[in-house]
What we know:
Elements: H1 8-29, H2 36-42, E1 52-56, H3 59-65, H4 69-80, E2 85-89, H5 95-100, E3 107-109, H6 116-121, E4 136-140, E5 144-148, H7 158-173
Parallel strand pairs: 1-2
Antiparallel strand pairs: 3-4, 4-5
Amino acid sequence: xxxxxxxxxxxxxxxxxxxxxxxxxxxxxxxxxxxxxxxxxxxxxxxxxxxxxxxxxxxxxxxxxxxxxxxxxxxxxxxxxxxxxxxxxxxxxxxxxxxxxxxxxxxxxxxxxxxxxxxxxxxxxxxxxxxxxxxxxxxxxxxxxxxxxxxxxxxxxxxxxxxxxxxxxxxxxxxxxxx
Length: 179
């Protein structure tokens, strides 16, 4: 479902719905060490629960309309990932990162106009920024890494060729898709 900012009832029910689903999954996954991945690997259930992705686009705008939303969101987000409920936020303001820092350890960014923002986003003192290649960005999942999302031209750079080679090697190492 898509919820627009002017749909107060739907927006307020989002937290209730997530809490209800989280409680259900906590009970169900208790036999599997309370982990979604263990449930997927070990459950005999043929209709396994899918991952639920909740995308909050323009989180800055959401907080303008619902200023207390972060207070409701942070306690839920801490538990959700291990139960197969994933939150994805798009944020335009670096002031929000500090409030959400612990609850959202994985960060992705593309080209930013102010290169000092990379240090704020990734909580580092190092000077970091992605190379000036279309579709290039940075990700932090413990360490900061550069990633490539798209290339409009086929095999025009050595970088794209290297990424394809790495992808082929990774596929050979783990031919089974990750759930």
